[in-house]
Amino acid sequence: MAGLFSKIQRFLRSPKGRELQHKARKIAQDPHTRRKVSDALRKFRKR
C-alpha cells in the first residue's frame, strides 16, 4: 500500500494534481453544491 500512497502524493504535487485540488475546493465552496451534498446526506441518514 505504501506504493499507492506515494503515487497519490506525487500526483497531488504535480501541476495537474494542484489544478484538480483547486477545482475541488472551488466546487466545495459553492453554496448550491453544499446544499446538494447536505440534502443527499440527510436522505442517506434517514435510511
TrEMBL record:
<feature type="region of interest" description="Disordered">
    <location>
        <begin position="15"/>
        <end position="47"/>
    </location>
</feature>
<feature type="compositionally biased region" description="Basic and acidic residues">
    <location>
        <begin position="16"/>
        <end position="47"/>
    </location>
</feature>
<protein>
    <submittedName>
        <fullName>Uncharacterized protein</fullName>
    </submittedName>
</protein>
